[in-house]
Each structure stands twice: as C-alpha cells, then as structure tokens.
Amino acid sequence: MEKLEGCEIRTEYEVFEVFVQKTQADPHIHVGSVVAPSPDMALVTARENFLRREQAVNIWIVPRDEVHATPYDDPDWFAREFDRKYREVGGYSENGRLWKRYRERAMHLEDIVRDLNGTPAGNSGKRDGGKGS
User: Fold this and answer.
1) Fewer Cβ in 10 A, N or C end of the chain?
2) CA 116 to CA 102: how far, in whole Å?
3) Cα 111 to Cα 1: distance, rounded to the nearest angstrom
4) Taking 60 as the threshold, does the pLDDT of residue 119 lie above it?
C-alpha cells in the first residue's frame, strides 16, 4: 500500500458480487459484480451502478473469493441418491398406473364382510328368501 498525505491508498482491487433487495418482503437478487479496493467502496460503487434508477432497501456485497460454488466438471455432484421420479412432472403418469394396480388388488369392504361371514366369493351373501331354486 502506498501512503499519500496521511491516507492509505490500496493498489489491490477485489471483485465483489452484488445482491439487491427491492423491498423487505423480497429476497436478495444477484445483479452483478463490482471491482473495488474495499467493502465500503464496493457498497458505494454498487449503489451508483445498480441503483441509479431503481429503488431498493438493502444491498449485500460479497467478496467473490468467499462464494463457494459447485464444480462445472463434476456432473455426478447433482446425481440423485434416491429414485425420486414421483416428484417430477413425468412421474405422475407412473403414479396413476401404480395407483390403479393398487386399487385392483385392494380389498373392499364387501370382500372383508364376505370373508368374516365365510361366504364364498361367487355368492353375493344374499339368501334366496327360503324359495327353492
């Protein structure tokens, strides 16, 4: 660093990522980057560059070195550990087929009553009212 009449001048600049919050109910949105010698100057530069014509309630600046990201060259990083096709839109047709198969195999109330009464499956459980057939 150089000193010029009692103040320090930084010759090293850092890249800061800028996030702006439009209202208190909104999330912070990444709007770009600025290059500045300090966080204080990054805030001023971000305000001048990104909020010249827009309103906001808050600005975040984050040194780019402090942002941790996933690697581009490792597609396995996003691989799913479990099969979650049922959460995807395309999985709904599969769910319909599985639900239909489940309903076909499920016992109905009539089946349970028939089993409890010991009535054969072909007989509906109704008696012929004493009439001979």
Assistant:
1) C
2) 22
3) 87
4) yes
